[in-house]
Here is the input.
Amino acid sequence: MRRWAMKKFVIALLSGVLVTGVLAAEAASAATVTNKDSETAVLIVVEGESRVEVAIASGATEMICPSGCFVTAPSGDRIGLQGDEDVEIVNGNVVVK
Amino acid sequence: MRSVGKLPAILVCLLALAMGGPVMAQKAAQPTAQQTAQANGQAGQKSAQPAQSPQGAQSSQTATQPADGKAAQEAQPAENGATPGAAEPAATTTQPAQNAQPAADGVPADATPPAQSQAAEQLTKAGEELRALTERVEKAKDDDIVLADLKVQVDALAKQIIGVSVSTRPRLDEIKARLTELGDPPGEGQPAEADIVTAERKRLMAERGAINALTGEAEGLSVQATKLSNAITATRRALFSNTLLKNTEVSTGMFDDALTATADETRVLSRSVGSWLSFAWNYKRVPLLTALFLSLLAALVFLSGSRRLFRPLIEHDITDEEPSYFRRLSVAFWSTLIPTIASAAFAVSSFLFLRGFNVLRSDIAPIIAITLGVAVVVFFVTRLAQAVLSPRDSRWRLVRVSDRGARMLMIAIFAMALVNGLDYLFGGVSEALGSPVVLTVVKSYIASIVIGLIIMASAWIKPMLRKDESFDAHGRAWPKVVSFTLLAIGASLIIAAVSGYVGLARFIATQIIITGAIMVTMYIGILTGRAVAKQGAFGETSAGRYLERRYNLEQVALDQIGLAAGLSIYALVFVFFIPLILLQWNFQIADIESWAYRMVTEIKIGSITISLVGIFAGILFFALGYVVTRFVQRWIDGNIMARSRVDAGVRNSIRTGIGYTGVGLAGLIGLSAAGIDLSNLALVAGALSLGVGFGLQNIVSNFVSGLILLVERPFKVGDWIVSGTTEGFVKRISVRATEIETFQHQSIMMPNSLLINASVGNWTHRNKLGRSEIAITVTYASDPRRIMALLSEIAAAHPMVLKNPSPSVGFTAFGDERMNFELRIYVADVLTGGGVRNDLRISIYERFRDEGIGAPFPVKIEDVPVEDQTGIESHHPEQVGEPKGATSAEERAASKTTASDKKTASAAPLDEEREVEGASGRRATGRRSNPNR
Here is the structure.
């Protein structure tokens, strides 16, 4: 009986921690990129060793580079991202919020 | 007074914590803002000069059309900048700066913003560092430990590079914003824009290009760093599989080589040890002796000290005839762990002493180090086997094996540990002396075969016992599964070694011995933790008994401590042994550190990251906030409000309010400390509002009602209230419900919304003043004026009856054959009304009897001649105390009819009173003749 109670307690504790963690996680996830332009934007994302072109449709939001990367905007500007920013593409420019 | 001083400090700290984020953000924002302001100011001042001159202004005006009105905006800051500072110089230097040259020239080439040049500098440095790291990686190709360390450095560098490019972002944003302000250059056929604008655009574009180039450089560096990091991982993987899966040709020639090499090595070893000893003795005698002395001291401290300190934990109690399973477990666990730790500490400290006194030579140091290390490991394994098997004392044996079996197993395990340890020791010595590799290979080859043979041999040990057999029985063979497994492992070790995979064989042998030992210890530790955490188990332990004696702890508290102790033993086991096992598997400390770091800072599951540190910080901050809130609450309540004689209701409201606010604040602080973005809660709030719409509305309405109750205070704790059918004293006003205690001491939780929505009667709202009535009935034989005068007199004589408002007597009705009077009195405390009425009735009865008026209550009128009737007619006396509540009209109507069944819903004490009075009334009726005749 007691062991059962303890188990329940532990389960409750763990699930509580997990829920909090998941909530917390929302805050510390990858960088989000939202395309505010009317046409598809193509970003060149350099993360780690790889260089990927990411196409983001108009109005779409994508998650990129959870642990830091470099992004080349359609306008040719290059910026470094730490991995926790919210980024918008406005007129081909990358605007970090 | 001290607490007065403390509180603001705590509050300030709390505030600072709460504001930490924003403040930091502001700080971060300030420099950029200042920069911007400076830049604007500069630009403004510089372009102010031309703007002052009429021509300049004109030219900028003419430029307005082509530049889509943006030049006007550009002129705006110029004027702004001109007003404060630049007006004067412009005025003094009346020279009209008509050409835009100054603006273009005014931006010197070296105006690269400090942030940018700093970033460039940092990048160059990072590049150099990366090159240096690459070189070091190249050099340390074969050294796993160094590689692991380098990888950590490279990863940190990659992060740093990204950080550098992030730092240039604000400037780039500024430039972009400014460029947008300036607009596109005029196209073909459009009128040309002002030169200043062109120049500024050019300059900005150049800077933008420079920043982009810088970021590009950073990008390249970052890619390089990641590549290097991945290369290190690949190298390390290859290194590992190489050591494991390297196949060595096993031949007789190899053994010949090894034989000669052994002879050489022995010679070299004895020579170097001898020379070192004589060197140390001759030239470093004092440091050597000091180091040895200190080592001995350390041994005294660690080994005998730990034995002393933990004696009850690690020693077999000879007097204990039948030690409990838990006791055996804990003794086994601690008697393994504590001496091992102590001996490891001793080994480390002696090595450090020797090195610290510069006694060691570079060729001797590794030999001594590995000797000490191997000794500790062999000690640990032996100690563990001893603890588990307890070959000498069957009572303390953890596993049920025969005495003989335990001895044999002990020997086998010790032999294996020794052989394996010697293998590593000789390997280390060979490495230190630079002997040929073949020697190490042959040693490992032999060691693996020996260990394999020992394992195979132990398959024939007969340790098993039947349930009914005693420990000194002969014992039976292993179950088939176990003996086959042992045989298979031993055989595979031998086969691996013979077929040339010496590295693999050695690795497996080590894993079997060391990892096995660590796992067994862990298992014992976990069993101990579980046993301690069992209900009532902790009280049985010596620590538990001590605590019980020392602090007079209850059983429950002991149990909780036992639970905590069990959990902390688990934690200890995992924290201590898992890294040990990982180290066994050729992971490096740097790896484990970075894992542990990542484990507590970010656990990634898919795209979400969990930060344990964040969560714990959140919980900590919440707890802190909660404690502070309670403290503030108590302080304000006890110190400020108690002294300023605030009304109890207000006090309660303020205390509760502070409690809610504080807990809410603490929750917010905790949430933000946990890294939870509060905007995410908007989602939850949205979901909740839907829930409120459906099911939660009652709870919410109760909550809000509770807040209203606190603010409006229609009643306070201790008031006598009536709401619907519930009547009683308010005990507690909490968020959802108010606790009312009826006169029968029944607690009723009344939802707050009911108290807000329904009408609530409060007997003691502003004051406790209350009116009480007593009904008196007499026959028409009496003189009503006389009766009224008597009643007034009686009421006035009672000390508890208020003089103002004064008591009054009303002639309320002409009843059938009797007159109805009502005495209305006011009492200061409505709660005393019952007692006062009681007293008054007694007085009235006695007085009427003395005056010969007769009983002031209805009596049955019998068929008596009229002249015999003394005028006593009572109709029911108590018309009591439904104090202010009931309307007098009602009452009168009721008293006209049979009054007794009227007040069923009156207050409980009054009911009681009525019962008593009813009884006395009946008695009086029985004795009716007394007063009259």
User: Anything to note?
Assistant: The longest strand of chain B covers residues 770-779. The first helix of chain B runs from residue 2 to 52. Confidence is low (pLDDT under 50) at residues 1-110, 864-933 of chain B.
